[in-house]
Amino acid sequence: MSGMLLELDGLAVHYPLHAGLWRRVVGWQRAVDGVSLAIAPGQAMGLVGESGCGKSTLARAVMGLAPVTAGAVRYRGVRISGLGRAALRPYRKRLQMIFQDPAGALNPRRSVAQCLEEPLEIHFPDWDAPRRRARAAELLRQVGLLPAHLARYPHELSGGQRQRVTIARALAVEPELLILDEPLSALDVSVQAQIVNLLAELRERLGLSYLFISHDLALVQQLCDEVLVMQAGKLVERLASDRLEQAEHPYTRKLLAAVPRL
Amino acid sequence: MLLEVEALRIAFPDLIAVDGVTFTLDQGETLALVGESGSGKSLTALALTRLLPAGAQLSGEIRYRGEAVTAMDARRLRQLRGRQIAYVFQEPTAALNPLFTVGEQIAEALRYHFPGLTRTQVRERVVAALERVGIPALRYHSYPHQLSGGMNQRAVIAMALACEPRLLVADEPTTALDVTLQAEILALLRQLQAQTGLALLLITHNLALVRGLARQVAVMRHGCILEQGASDRVLDAPQHPYTRALLACVPRLGQRRPRLPILEEDI
Lengths: 262, 267
Description:
The complex is a heterodimer of chains A (262) and B (267).
Chain A: E1 6-19, E2 24-39, E3 44-48, H1 55-62, E4 70-75, E5 78-79, H2 85-94, E6 95-98, H3 102-105, H4 112-123, H5 129-142, H6 159-171, E7 177-181, H7 189-206, E8 209-214, H8 217-223, E9 226-231, E10 234-240, H9 250-258
Parallel strand pairs in A: 3-8, 3-9, 6-7, 7-8
Antiparallel strand pairs in A: 1-2, 1-4, 4-5, 9-10
Helix pairs in contact in A: 4-5, 5-6, 6-7
Chain B: E1 3-12, E2 15-25, E3 30-34, H1 41-47, E4 57-64, E5 67-68, H2 74-80, E6 85-88, H3 92-95, H4 102-113, H5 119-132, H6 149-162, E7 167-171, H7 179-196, E8 199-204, E9 216-221, E10 224-230, H8 231-236, H9 241-248
Helix pairs in contact in B: 4-5, 4-6, 5-6
């Protein structure tokens, strides 16, 4: 046992490319191509790269949402890639994912209370309704919202409030690791700052670990201890986030040069 | 003066979205309207060609080359929209029709505004428009889904510029794109402006885009302009507390802080 929370060992996700009348496989799209990394408990790891470099596919593969072609995903030393639905369920609780667009991640016809109580029903089947409601209210407080928000519907909330709700929902099952896929790109800068602070605070208070995926290098530096740089399905550089500007790989330098300066 | 906006006010039955906005924009100039969601910046941009949603009450003055836009009839407005003042929006895939090739979509705009052009002339102009934004001519026959996000946004810019407007309104043109594409699109806008003397109204919530692209900036909140001036001055020595707070909450490379400053509601 290495004591690591999450380990990827030569992870690959290849999609077949079809062509012709019979849709024969003519090649492979190597979305993720042999990625190895490890995240320790309590660590915040950043993952940067351009659109199409495979960072979202990597996240989906970790969550069991994309087919793993080769390599392994291990959680606390246990291989979770290739497990069936039932065997995977205990791990689903420990790993939660947060997406870019909170409006798309919330069901518009369900109130905040319904959306927070659903995962509680599944993962804590012996809880009664009042206990679920109390937990939902507590979750909202954790993300800086009020119990009064329980009765609201997503369209009654601002973008920042919606993203707070998706974070609260992820926290409902008491996860150890959050995988955040561009969670801030759809938000105003002032709201981004609030959510970044919330994530930093939750990490300190709950001992959470993060895999934070973003193309915004300044945000990654603010929130993470280490940064991984991904290009065309492969990791090309790994460095402490404080040393980001001393990066040596030409691709990282290109990303740095593209950041607009205030 | 190309564009003069004076005491612009946009009211809905239950709220005043824009209140007393005044600015001017001349040929070859760039003005950035910066503000958060709900500040009224996008409505201000739409009001320039009276594209406001139903129920919006417009008052104040908008003059395009001295002519009151508020007094234009439907026919005159159609000549203004797209031909004189063109728009580029945030999401290129929403601005393009997925069922037509990008070339056909640019050609449609040209045929509408220049009915006298022959088919060959339309085609030549489409190819020229595509090449100006760095899209090879053979992409004429590509559908939006066959192009990348950055390429689609280039196609939208090509479409906006095909009719040679004098003013381009770019509403969050790079928000949907990642950093390298963002830098690419901004460089393209700068280059096109230098070549054609186009005036640019940049609408954004990201202050970092302002420097390098806009000489003038106006900071908007709750429908009002709080601070307006040369962008270097506003970014380096902001006068209004809101501008200061907005600048402070942006994370910067090499300046990691335990917590980012939060913008208080009552600034």
